[in-house]
Amino acid sequence: MTQLSPPPTDDDVVLLTVPADGGYLGVLRTATAGLAARLHFALDEIEDLRIAVDEACAMLLAIAGRNAELCCRFAVTDDALTVEVSVPVRPGAGLPPESSFAWKVLTALTTSASATVVDGTATISLLTRRGGAR
Length: 134
Fold this sequence. Notes:
This protein is an alpha+beta fold. Helices cover about 30% and strands about 30% of the residues. It comes from Plantactinospora siamensis.
């Protein structure tokens, strides 16, 4: 996976936390679409990003700890949207391998995708640049 560089400090940042339950993923998809539209992404780019966020959340929900919350950080720059979704994981649980179908979806739909698991919290980071620059 390509490592994402930290966004500049003057970005617009939106933080959104929802219960780690599939019923709340619509909130994250809607926020993703709204922020991508603000950046004037094309409709197909917005839909690709919504699907990528949905897939990343599904990966995290599968390993989420009991009563966990999904924390989503959106960083907006002039030409890109970075989405970082995090969740505390169950002991012994891990993300699927990078060769899995889920990762192929993420890397096909975004400019770059990466994941970390640190101190019991898994984070998937997605970067999408406007105009399909991949």
